[in-house]
Amino acid sequence: MTVAFHIFVRTDDRPRDHWAADCVFRHGPEFFINAITSTLQLRARDDVRGRVIAIYSIGILGSGLVGVPLAGTLADAVGVPDTLLIIATICAGTAAITAWTWLKYQNRKVVSIVQPAPP
Q1: ∠ CA(27), CA(1), CA(52), 5° rounding?
Q2: Average of pLDDT values for 110-114?
Q3: What is the spatial distance between Cα 53 and Cα 50, in angstroms, rounded to a whole number?
Q4: Rounded distance, CA 80 to CA 54, Å?
Q5: Is the CB of residue 21 less than 8 Å from the CB of residue 2?
Q6: Are 10 and 19 in contact (CB under 8 A)?
Q7: What does pLDDT average to over the chain?
C-alpha cells in the first residue's frame, strides 16, 4: 500500500502536502497490527502463546493470498464499486457477529458473578 501511495504522490501534479494521507495509509495499519499483536500476547496463556500468534499470523498474512484474487475476479464480474460495497458488507457483518459474540460472553460472565452456582 505504501508503494502505491508513493507512486500516486510522485506522479501527481498537485502540491506535495499529503502528510495526512501518508499517516493514514502508511502508519494506520502499523498501529492496528501492533495493538492486536500486543493484546493477543498479553491475553494468551504462556503455554499456548506461540500457537496463538502463529494462527493469527497465518490468518493475517494468508487472507491476502485468498482475498485479493477473489476481489479481482469479483471486480471483473460486477465492477469495482459493487465489489467494494460487497467487501464492506462482509467486514461490517463480521464486526457485528464478533461484537454480538463478545457481548454475549461478557453478559454470561456478569450473570455468573451475580448469581453464584448452587452447591
Answers
A1: 70
A2: 59
A3: 5
A4: 33
A5: no
A6: no
A7: 79
Tell me the one-letter amino acid at 33: I
Grid cell at residue 66 = 485468498
The Cα 49–Cα 57 span in angstroms is 12
All three cell numbers of 73:
475476479
Residue bearing cell 457477529: 97
pLDDT band at 60 (very low <50, low <70, confident <90, very high): confident
Contacts of residue 37, defined as CB under 8 A and 6 or more positions apart, other chains included, come to 53, 56
Evaluate whether 52 touches 40 at the Cβ level (below 8 Å): yes
Q: Which residues of 8-37 are buried (b: 16+ CB within 10 A; e: fewer)?
A: eeeeeeeeeebeeeeeebeeeeeeeeeeee
Contact by Cβ (8 Å): 64, 77: no
Residue type, 101: T
CB within 8 Å of 52: residues ≥ 6 apart: 40, 44
